Structures are given as structure tokens and as C-alpha cells.
Amino acid sequence: MFKKYLFILLCSTAFIVTSQSLKADERPEPGFQVQVEGQGKAIILIPGLMSDQRVWQQLVTELKADHQLHQINLAGFAGTKALASPLKLTQVTQQLAAYIQQHQLQKPVLIGHSMGAFLAFQLASSYPQLTGKVIAVDGLPYLAPVFSRDSNTSVAQMLPQAKMMQQYYQQMTAAQLAESTKQGIAVQVSSTEHATLITEMAGQSDPTTVGAVIAELLTTDLRDEVHKIQQPVLLLGAGGALPSDAMRPAVQALYQQQINTIPQAKLDFNWQARHFIMWDQPEWLLAQITDFIKE
Fold first, then answer.
1. Which end of the chain is more exposed for a tag (fewer CB within 10 A), N or C?
2. 274 in helix, strand or coil?
């Protein structure tokens, strides 16, 4: 059951920036690549686990006339070359901060989906002076409570499960990873077209990278860090895959608990959209994002 629901809140993205103070041979491998489109206020778009910039295509089309969109693709996901050593999200966060500084982006808006939302929370809480508003698309500061259904779930409790999951994925082939993704596709998206694309991106991902990132997500709790975020935060939840409407209050409370310490944060749910809100309810998502950016 744990594996079946693992993909509800996971899904992925990479530029290659490092500290100028390090010598070339000391710099860590770049954890991401970037494609830039449009002109105007900078927005950084971070996809979820095993995804790439294709998840943002419609949003980019709508926003690029007035915004400069920095689309991230993480190493090891959806065809982007994996690193020699397992990808570490904490290192990606440091590299994203360096990217913002090197390109002189003025408090860019951070929009992340699922795992990408986790990265946005980590970046905004670690480097609050560098970042602008945060929009989390069905992603949280701590993943584990989504599966345990308990906000009191601790990192210590998740350590054995995380190790098991990492080993499980390390033994997979790319084809098996795609098949595993396909089995849980009903909670991710409604349309057959987008289900096919999600499966395709999974089949182009590196299983070892996927396992390492899942383990990191299950054992990294940012709830005690997000109070440092200085800019407004919008958390958008997807409730379309819930088996019963009676579950809505509990799910909403679980999400709300994760952002309670952020000074300026609000939560909104779409009860029709599944995990990939950008495909299930694109007009609603666009309206939420544009209104929030303008506020």
C-alpha cells in the first residue's frame, strides 16, 4: 500500500552552478539544467520526481509574455543525465541559490510541483533573502505524513522505511520503474494522454537517483525551518484522487499543519484535480498563480 501511494506527492527537474570560491576540480557535479523563456519578472519552475519541464509547458505559454521563466530539469529524471553519485536535494538547493546570485535574479518567484515544491520550501527557508513568493503545487515541507496520515510522524520513524525504499528502487531497471509508475497512475492524472507522458518520463529516469531522492524526502522534515520564509506562500492541494469526500477535512488539516509557522501562508484545495493539477485543472491553476503573483 505504501508503494501504491508513493507517487501521490512525488513527481521532478537542472543548471550547473557552484560556489565561485571552489576550484574547478572541487566543485560538485551540477544537479540540474535550465531552459529560459520569456522576459520580465523571473519565475523558477521546478517539476516533481521523475518529471521535467514538460509539466509546465502550458503554464509557460501563458506566462512568458510578461515573465522570464527558468525551467529546471533535475539530473537523473526524465532523460536528463544522472550524476556519478546519487543526487542530493540539499546540494541542488545550494546550487539553485548560486544560480539566482550568478544570474542576478531579483527575488524570483518559486513554483514547484510535488518534490519541486519541497525544493522551493527548502530554498526559500535556507535563503530567504534571495527568494520571492513561493507557490507549492501539491507538495509539502515533509512528505512522510501523507502516507502515514499522521502529522506526528517523525524522521526517526521513517528511517527504516526510507532505507527499504531506496534499496527497492536501486534494484529496478528503467522499464520496471515505468511499469511501477503506471500502476499508481490513477492518483496522478485523469487523462490517458498525460498518463502516458508520466510513464514515459519515468522510463527515462534513473532508478538509483529516484530511490536516493525518495529516501531523502522521507527523512527530511522542513516543518521547523519554513518559519524563516519571508515572502508569501501559496500551497495548492489536489484532492481529486481521494476515495471519499469524508476524507477532505483530515487531508486539509494535514496540509495546513505543515505551513502553520510560515508568517504569510495560505492553503487552497482543488477537489477535482489529481496530483498533476497543471494537467487536470490548468485554468484553475493559472488563475491561482497569476492572482497570487499580482497580490
1. N
2. coil
The H-or-E segment that residue 39 falls in is none
Give the pLDDT score at 9: 42
Q: How long a stretch of residues is the chain?
A: 295
- List the one residue out of 214, 262, 255, 217 whose CA is nearest residue 236: 255
Q: Which three cell numbers stand for residue 234?
A: 501559496
Which residues 6+ apart lie within 8 Å of 41 measured at CB? 66, 67, 68, 108, 109, 293
Query: Do 59 and 285 touch, CB atoms closer than 8 A?
Result: yes
Residue 18: how many CA atoms within 13 Å on its side-chain side?
13
The dihedral of CA 101, 104, 106, 111: what is its sign?
A: negative
3-class secondary-structure state, position 223: coil
Q: Cβ distance 212 to 87 under 8 Å?
A: yes
CA neighbor of 42 nearest in space, from 18, 72, 79, 13: 72
**Average pLDDT in the 200-204 region?**
97
Rounded to an integer, what distance in angstroms lies between the CA atom of residue 137 and that of residue 281?
Answer: 12
Q: Which fold does the domain 2-294 belong to in CATH?
A: Rossmann fold (3.40.50)
The total of other beta-carbon atoms located within 10 Å of residue 27's CB is 15
Q: Is the pLDDT of residue 45 over 60?
A: yes
C-alpha–C-alpha distance, residues 283 and 287, integer Å: 6
Q: Mean pLDDT throughout 162-170?
A: 95
All cell numbers assigned to 23: 576550484
Q: Per residue in 107-135, pLDDT tens?
A: 999 999 999 999 999 999 999 999 999 99
Confidence (pTM): 0.91
Q: Are 11 and 47 in contact (CB under 8 A)?
A: yes
